[in-house]
Write a structure and sequence with these properties.
It is built from 18 helices and 29 strands.
Length: about 700
């Protein structure tokens, strides 16, 4: 009988590891290894932990040590590279290692359901099946032939990009800047094909990780990948999978059966023992930043992971983030340009501005917009109207006394959802019946102010009674699979006018779409958030790029119309010229002058309390915990939406010109914050995207 001490990371807020005693007996069939999952007692519970070290002795008195319950032996240990990735994320974002490593694992692994695990492993290791299983199931063993199916011929720019990526045998970050419709996906797939073929010829394994920003973009890309590579194993990882599906897909990647893994931001922490290429599609998208718990950037972790493994990483976008554009300009990234659309005779759409101070839009749509919709309908073409505001109207109002539909739990308005006859808060999800009369004065004539997608949909159906109108937003796609069904209807041509929010603005290849109309984009022009202009420009270029992706004559060229009260604004003029480079350089100059990222590094301490003074006082005390020479601590301030679900919120912004200096301070500061006696909730975010 022999004994070992296991150092184990657990999913707890305690920034420490725990020692457990493991005793070898004659019934044991395996010895513990670093990276193995283990069941251990913690308090009165049994939990899953991750073995970080196996030692002969412990600094803890042996009488206080508890025994390991069981090892998860059938599963291959998580690699040292994967553990290093989690350590980096834990150190950089200042979270306990267990909080980084364990929540990303499938629930069935963490809850130790051996029957489910053994069943999946048995299927994965079974002899290759003679037929391919359904697309939702990654349990397909690869056949020797992995050649692509119906791969289109690349143009010169695409071929140059693929050659640049596949020639590299070491870490190389590429910024693939391509106009919308330029065939960035084909560059990804051809590069993946080449790297997988290189591995096959050298009798080694290779895996490709392809990240997308949002779940609704996954089915279209997954279908494309599976159709292209029918003999490869493809796994998907995102939050809408059932726990059984997630276990199968995760184990397929971890056991190296999956050749290509598609996923949203959580997939960046997947176990991929033979990773050879990382792709971040739409790399500019803020959805890559987790906004609760471990507030990580999947894009930044993907770049770090590629550096760690000494492999290429591709960041693709028609509108790169300002940070990535700056890195390309400084030589840190290599920029690859795709300046033309991939489909021959498919040109970028004409962009026009409609001045709604002159051409009024009483029901949300101006006369020129309605005329353009009539024209496209007459020619059997599809149109898209983009309004990034769901619901029927942003607020209800009483003209008699001035009552407004405030949320009683948030410093926000309750949005009218007319079909459901409900007022709904989009921040705390509180729902109320629409009042028959004013709650303050009894006035029966309550007014809906502003317009959301439901109200525009109502107006479209009245104006175009013969048109097939479809609304796609978070309200219309609540059921699982409903978004995919809606997009399939658009692709089939069963929709004449598509109305939607940001869900429709990017990543979708609508071949019949020739007109895009943008309603009310002006609100972002005057936001206090310094990133608002960057996001608006990206959003408008992305939604404009949905038009004209198929070959068209110059006479019937696709068109984008923006309704605005500020047609002279520089942002719109850059958009008219499809001049992202000019916009990005102007934005960088502004940020350099103002001392904003990427020329400075930031961290944000947030506090949530019953009262705003309590939150502000905690932040003031936190700022006084340590000397902060070289670190600029701004005054604590309330958040823009100060109260959410009855909780008051405030924040403290830290800034420093040196990332290393800021990180060193945060490393000293966090233990001091954890030692503060407080009953309120607080959190730290490094590299915040919403301030």
């Amino acid at each position: 009988m022999s004994k070992k001490i296991l150092k184990v990371a657990l999913d707890t807020p305690l920034d420490t590891t725990f020692d457990y005693r493991w005793t070898h007996t004659t019934t044991e069939t395996s010895f513990p290894q670093v990276g193995q999952l283990v069941r251990v007692p913690f308090g009165r519970r049994e939990v899953t932990g991750l073995i970080l070290d196996v030692l002969d002795s412990s600094d803890v008195d042996e009488g206080k040590l508890r025994d390991v319950i069981a090892l998860r032996a059938p599963i291959a240990p998580l690699s040292s590279e994967w553990i290093a990735l989690c350590r980096f994320a834990a150190d950089y974002y200042h979270r306990p290692l267990g909080e980084v490593a364990l929540p990303g694992l499938p629930k069935h692994l963490r809850e130790a359901k051996p029957a489910s695990i053994d069943r999946v492993l048995k299927k994965l290791h079974a002899p290759a099946a003679s037929t391919t299983l359904p697309a939702v199931d990654p349990e397909v063993n690869p056949a020797p032939d992995s050649s692509p199916n119906s791969a289109p011929v690349l143009n010169d720019e695409q071929r140059a990009a693929v050659d640049a990526i596949t020639r590299k045998r070491e870490f190389a970050p590429f910024l693939l800047h391509g106009v919308t419709g330029s065939g960035k996906t084909e560059v990804y797939l051809h590069a993946a094909q080449a790297l997988l073929e290189q591995a096959r010829q050298s009798s080694t394994r290779a895996q490709i990780l392809l990240l997308v920003p949002e779940i609704n973009l996954t089915p279209q890309l997954e279908h494309h990948v599976r159709a292209r590579f029918p003999h490869l194993t493809v796994a998907t990882l995102h939050s809408q999978l059932s726990e059984a599906e997630r276990l199968r897909h995760w184990l397929s990647a971890h056991e190296a059966h999956a050749d290509i893994v598609l996923g949203t931001r959580l997939a960046v922490l997947a176990s991929l023992p033979h990773l050879r290429l990382v792709v971040i599609d739409e790399e500019h998208d803020p959805s890559y930043k987790q906004q609760e718990g471990l507030r990580y950037s999947a894009r930044d972790l993907a770049v770090w992971r590629a550096r760690q493994l000494n492999i290429p990483v591709v960041l693709g976008s028609a509108t790169p983030s300002i940070e990535s554009w700056h890195h390309a300009g400084s030589g840190r990234y290599r920029r690859l340009n795709l300046t033309q659309r991939a489909v021959v005779q498919a040109s970028l759409p004409r962009i026009g501005l409609i001045d709604i101070e002159r051409d009024k839009a009483p029901e949300g749509l101006s006369a020129p917009m309605i005329a353009a919709l009539h024209d496209r309908l007459a020619h059997g073409e599809q149109s898209l109207l983009f309004l990034n505001r769901r619901g029927y109207a942003p607020v209800m109002h009483c003209d008699a006394c001035g009552w407004i539909s405030h949320c009683r739990r948030c410093t926000a308005y309750m949005v009218l959802h007319k079909p459901e006859r409900r007022l709904r808060c989009h921040h705390c999800s509180l729902e109320l019946r629409v009042p028959v009369s004013c709650p303050t004065c009894g006035n029966l004539d309550l007014q809906a102010l502003g317009r959301g997608t439901q109200r525009i949909e109502e107006h479209l159906k009245a104006t175009f009674p013969m048109a097939r109108v479809l609304r796609i937003d978070a309200d219309s796609t609540r059921r699982k699979g409903s978004a995919q069904q809606a997009f399939e209807a658009v692709h089939r041509g069963d929709v004449d006018i598509l109305l939607g929010t940001q869900m429709v603005a990017k990543g979708h290849d609508f071949q019949r779409l020739t007109l895009v109309g943008v309603i009310n984009p002006d609100t972002a022009l005057f936001s206090h958030d310094y990133r608002a202009g960057e996001r608006l420009f990206a959003q408008l270029m992305q939604v404009a790029g949905r038009a004209g992706r198929a070959a068209m004559s110059q006479e019937r060229r696709s068109e984008v119309l923006l309704q605005t009260r500020y047609p002279q604004h520089p942002l719109y003029h850059a958009l008219l010229a499809h001049d992202y480079a000019g916009f990005a350089e102007a934005t960088l100059n502004e940020r350099r002058a103002a001392g904003l990222p990427p020329f400075i590094h930031q961290a944000l301490l947030r506090a949530e309390a019953k009262t705003l003074p309590m939150a502000l006082e905690f932040l003031r005390s936190a700022s006084a915990q340590l000397p902060h020479e070289g670190i600029r601590m701004n005054e604590p301030v309330p958040l823009t939406i100060t109260r959410v679900a009855g909780v008051e919120r405030a924040q403290l912004l830290l800034e420093c010109e040196s990332r290393a200096q800021l990180q060193a301070f945060l490393t000293r500061w966090m233990p001091a914050l954890r030692a503060m006696k407080t009953r309120l909730r607080w959190s730290l975010e490094v590299d915040p995207v919403d301030i």
